[in-house]
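Researcher: Next sequence.
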Amino acid sequence: MFKIAKHKSKALCPAYRCGNKRGTKKRFCPRHHHMRQAETNPLGYTYSLLKTNAKRRGKVFTLTLEQFRQFCTETDYLVLKGKQGSNLSIDRKDNSKGYEVGNLQVLTLSANSRKGCGYCPF
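Model: Next structure:
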């Protein structure tokens, strides 16, 4: 968690040593808002990030938060996700379909990367 400065202008982010403007109708700047969301509600933050990225990429997203919660519980995704090659990532089994209940699986980042490049026959 980051420190919060006590005496700052109301227009600035209250995070210590941050000089950015606050987000629209938010307490923090976008950077610190995302950091706080990731710390306070990791499941909701991860779900929101997955949904936003699917929309940006033009993929169908029919997964509900409850279905995502069950998927994370069964696979320990939230505990084992990360940025190293041995950490888990969410993969779609059939790339022509979107993010649906039966179309998701977890793979390591390295295996998911190989799958996308055509090296690995998953």
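Model: The helical segments are 30-40, 42-56, 65-75, 77-80, 109-117. The first helix runs from residue 30 to 40.
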